[in-house]
């Protein structure tokens, strides 16, 4: 989809990209980096809007330096910032943007109706966008990037400003852009945690350099953690400790409670244990063991939750190591 | 790290509960199914035309809210009605010609044209900057120059229509009341040429000013100032030149504002009545200089406009 070869971009004062080499395959790719890591600069170059200082990049097999127009015809872009005029309706706006992508008027209207429905905008699409919630605005922004049926969309911080529920919905939507629509996605975020749920592949850049590029599954597997919350009973006034002991007897390795766990409310009632590392099949037997152990102790099982956010630790540790 | 991670809990926790509801929603969408687009992609020139049409319509409030139609339509009526009245007067007095010439009529309407332009240019140009819509254009096949060309052409066309329609009303009316066909046709054609010149120059100035600010209010005020203040200043200076026996300077002074520049051109080349003090017309040299300055101004403001967008957005 995208091939980047020792790409550099230097501004008079800063180096935004420093000999970046990375290939991006079809699918959903997360591009992670702190603010100022060079994500937006990279997007600009990929759209053929800003010449690179050195190096080459190609998108969909086309050279960004010479075929920018042709690339932009088949690529969609969703900016990070607000970009919607408040006095027009979503339908009018997206139709206009479809025509700006070269779609004839009738096709533009049909595609707009389809796309807005796919991103989950229904009756409200006829109302001026000024009255939309942030979530709805993000959907319109996504729709205008998809309306011309691109082969690839570049989404710049699509979850910015969304509440947790809205973020989950947006991430689900992004996943569907690939699985259901067959459109490849490059999505940027400064939060690794949210990209690991949607992305097949994650690229981390920092200071314009590549820190890491690898498939999400590789990390998820290694770091998946199961969090279990149980109730206390008269028999076991400290249910968590009892469960931890029982699990250890059953041959599992629950984590020791962190000394400062009392700080976070409720954290004291959680038992966490690694379930990754082995083959994926091991997972289910772990769940069964935990359930049976809790039942034998007579503890109420409040929840069992698979957590993956510790990936970010792995990345941070690694990146710290890489930098050093 | 922990400030980063702690807020992640609520996001991961409800994810399971939601999966079912979201899953149901997805099923509905699944059933409709995604259809790709295999049809034609018409590219840059088509997009440029579409942007031109959309901006032109927008300049009259078409395709926008009812509220935004009010001002352009009221102003449009205000420039058309006097034209109709002129025709009526000619019919009643059975005069041989219209009371006011075609090009002269446009110059008389300048205050209204200024207001219209001051409202239309920021609407067409500043709003894209204010709401940061420009990156969406530039992430599409069109180039920055296409965007500038479409916007400038749309603004010029809007202003041309605004002045040409009253001219046409006068012309049709003049023919209906059976004024001389040859005279009137010649006058009307000259009037339309003048409308075009007027629109090209004023649209270039207003477009550039509007592109400098994302604020509509600033744009409106700046455009009105830029169009009226030099005009009154130059007219005043010309008056002083006349009373202080420097009437030779009147023509040269007229180069100083868009309004007087156009006035000079119409009186010299389009058989118009001069609005200069003493109804002076230009000498041959002055006329040539006026034309050169006109072309240079349009080109200069257009180049400034292009330059403004070289760095705008994305």
Characterization of the model:
Chain B: Residues 1-22 are annotated as: Disordered. Chain B: It comes from Streptomyces smyrnaeus. Chain B: Keywords: Membrane, Transmembrane, Transmembrane helix. Chain B: It holds the Pfam family ABC2_membrane_2. The complex is a heterodimer of chains A (324) and B (314). The longest helix of chain A has 16 residues, at 164-179. By secondary structure, chain A is of the alpha/beta class. Chain A is built from 11 helices and 13 strands. In chain A, the strands form 3 sheets. A 6-stranded mixed beta sheet of chain A has the order 6-7-8-3-9-10, sandwiched between helices. Chain A has a 4-stranded antiparallel beta sheet with strand order 2-1-4-5. Chain A has 2 domains: 2-220, Rossmann fold, CATH 3.40.50; 225-307, Alpha-Beta Plaits. Chain B is mostly helical and 314 residues long. Chain B has one domain (45-310). Chain B contains 13 helices and no strands. The model of chain B is unreliable at 1-27 (pLDDT under 50). At the A-B interface, α2, β6, α3, α4 and α6 of A face α2, α3 and α7 of B.
């Amino acid at each position: 989809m995208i091939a980047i070869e020792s790409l550099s971009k230097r501004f008079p004062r800063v180096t935004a990209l420093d000999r970046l080499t990375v290939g991006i395959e079809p699918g959903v790719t997360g591009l992670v980096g702190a603010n100022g890591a060079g994500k937006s600069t990279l997007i600009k170059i990929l759209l053929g809007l800003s010449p690179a200082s050195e190096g080459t990049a190609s998108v969909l097999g086309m050279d960004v330096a010479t075929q920018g127009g042709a690339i932009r015809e088949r690529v969609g872009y969703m900016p990070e910032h607000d970009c919607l005029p408040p006095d027009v309706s979503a339908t009018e706006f997206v139709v206009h943007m479809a025509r700006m992508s070269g779609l004839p008027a009738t096709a533009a209207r049909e595609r707009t109706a389809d796309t807005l429905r796919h991103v989950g905008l229904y009756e409200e699409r006829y109302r001026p966008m000024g009255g939309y919630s942030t979530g709805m605005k993000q959907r319109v922004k996504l729709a205008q990037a998809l309306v011309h049926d691109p082969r690839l969309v570049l989404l710049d911080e699509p979850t910015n400003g969304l509440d947790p529920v809205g973020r989950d919905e947006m991430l689900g939507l992004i996943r569907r852009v690939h699985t259901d629509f067959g459109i490849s996605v490059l999505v940027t975020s400064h939060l690794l945690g949210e990209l690991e749920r949607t992305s097949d592949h994650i690229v981390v850049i920092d200071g314009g350099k590549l820190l890491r590029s690898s498939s999400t599954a590789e990390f998820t597997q290694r770091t998946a953690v199961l969090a279990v919350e149980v109730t206390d009973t008269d028999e076991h006034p400290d249910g968590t400790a009892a469960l931890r002991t029982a699990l250890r007897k059953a041959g599992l390795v629950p984590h020791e409670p962190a000394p400062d766990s009392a700080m976070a409310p409720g954290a004291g009632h959680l038992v966490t244990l690694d379930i990754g590392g082995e083959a994926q099949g091991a997972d289910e037997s772990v769940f069964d063991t935990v359930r049976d152990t809790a039942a034998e102790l007579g503890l109420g099982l409040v929840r069992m939750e698979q957590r993956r956010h510790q990936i970010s630790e792995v990345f941070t540790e690694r990146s710290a190591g890489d930098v050093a | 790290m922990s400030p980063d991670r702690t807020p992640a809990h609520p996001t991961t926790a409800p994810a399971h509960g939601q999966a079912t509801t979201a899953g149901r929603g997805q099923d509905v969408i699944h059933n409709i199914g995604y259809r790709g687009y295999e049809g034609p992609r018409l590219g840059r020139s088509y997009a440029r035309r579409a942007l031109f049409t959309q901006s032109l319509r927008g300049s009259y409030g078409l395709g926008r809210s009812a509220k935004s139609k009010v001002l352009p339509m009221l102003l449009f009526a205000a420039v058309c009605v006097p034209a109709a009245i002129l025709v009526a007067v000619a019919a009643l007095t059975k005069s041989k010609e219209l009371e006011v010439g075609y090009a002269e009529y446009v110059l008389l309407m300048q205050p209204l044209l200024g207001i219209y332009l001051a409202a239309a240019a920021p609407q067409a140009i500043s709003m894209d900057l204010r709401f940061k819509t420009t990156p969406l254009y530039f992430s599409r096949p069109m180039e920055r120059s296409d965007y500038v060309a479409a916007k400038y052409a749309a603004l010029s066309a809007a202003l041309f229509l605004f002045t040409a329609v009253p001219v046409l009303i006068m012309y049709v009316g003049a023919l209906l009341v059976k004024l001389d066909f040859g005279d009137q046709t010649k006058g009307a054609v000259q009037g339309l040429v003048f409308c075009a010149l007027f629109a090209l120059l004023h649209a270039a100035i207003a477009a550039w000013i509007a592109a400098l600010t994302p604020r509509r209010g600033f744009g409106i005020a700046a455009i009105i100032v830029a169009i009226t203040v030099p005009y009154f200043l130059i007219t005043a200076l010309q008056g002083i030149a006349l009373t202080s026996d420097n009437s030779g300077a009147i023509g040269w002074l007229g180069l100083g504002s868009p309004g007087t520049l156009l006035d000079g051109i119409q009186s010299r080349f389009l058989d118009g009545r001069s609005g200069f003090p003493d109804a002076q017309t230009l000498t041959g040299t002055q006329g040539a200089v006026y034309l050169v300055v006109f072309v240079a101004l349009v080109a200069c403001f257009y180049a400034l406009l292009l330059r403004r967008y070289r760095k705008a957005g994305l």
